[in-house]
Specification:
There is one protein chain. This protein is of the alpha+beta class. The longest helix is centred in the last third of the chain and has 20 residues. The strands form six sheets. A six-stranded mixed β-sheet has the order 10-3-2-14-25-24, with helices on both faces. It has three domains: 195 residues, 3-Layer(bba) Sandwich (FAD/NAD(P)-binding domain), CATH 3.50.50; 53 residues, no CATH class; 137 residues, D-Amino Acid Oxidase, Chain A, domain 2, CATH 3.30.9.
Amino acid sequence: MIKTDIVIIGAGIMGLAVARELHHRHPGLRIILLEKEDTFGHHASGRNSGILHAGFYYAPDSLKAKFTVEGNRLLTEYCLQHNLSINRCGKLVVAKDEEELKGIYELKNRGDKNGVHLQLIDELELSQLDPNAKTHCKAIYSPTTSVVNPKEVLSQIATGFNNSVSILYNEKFIQRKDAHSIVTNKNTIQYKHLINCAGLYADKIGHQYGVGKHYALIPFKGLYLEYKDRNLIQKHIYPVPNLKNPFLGVHFTKMADGRVKIGPTAIPALWRENYQGLSRFNLGEFIEIFRYETKLFLRNSFNFRDLAFTEIKKYYKKYFIKQAAHLVKKLEEDKFGDYLTPGIRAQLLDTRTMKLEMDFVVEQEDTSTHVLNAVSPAFTSSFSFGKCIADKAERVMKM
């Protein structure tokens, strides 16, 4: 039996950020982070693009809008304070036609309401910021969008605790034993409060505590291709997204070290850790997810049918490249390398409405807090989101 004050499931960015916040507030609080892999950030966090979003995509009344604006500032300050890699190159959002121009104005409007510094620029101003970027009439320039090395950030947080915080690796949550204890593959752990930051498995753990019963996680695979010329672009270049779904479309990213890549895809995956081939295949997950995806396909919820067809075609490299080609004036197809390390986006589905949850979702019961939907921009939002989770835990624990 191991005893602790707080147990946090998952040592990705959210688990680490929550532990960091609680540790700062209560240095003597005993905290254990459980991580089923042999290192932190093995899944979504360590495979993240590293973009620190500015916060202008999101509806003004959303948690995403609130946490992203503050989170961008906090994480930027953290990287500068600890001399971590950060490329503060800024981002451009460009339009390809008159219809997408409406989206440019909508994004500018959201940014203004969210308190984000944005510039609405014309084609001449765009060419001065990035000579290779291409737009129709207008574009948005976001100077506060930057990019970091996710693994550097995770490592800095994970190594910054004292002895009151422990990370137990290769320690997998198995089941809830009672209101104040759980069973792992190695131990029984007794706690005062549990915080579920399990990412791809947050819903499954939540269900054992009676929360989020009408939610299920649907995995989407994100692939990137590297471009072998760092001088192709000067800024991140994004298309106008479809604001009715949570994906931002294939775009150009200028990485923290100056390299360039395009992506990501949002290919419906068939099990939760469906990174490559049959690796980590799980029959039960396959049956459950295939059933949900079949329903989505037949009902065409949130235009899932077209999304699935379009995204699956991105396995074909030429088609994938074509999705980004309209964002720039010049592009050489033969300068693209292989696919980079894939990631899986854990997207929460409301099984009552068969719609994807667009915002962060957190639910609680007497002895636990569950981060059920920590989708993009959760990495950017992690420090501010972590404050919110710490607040909720403190209220329940009456600290």
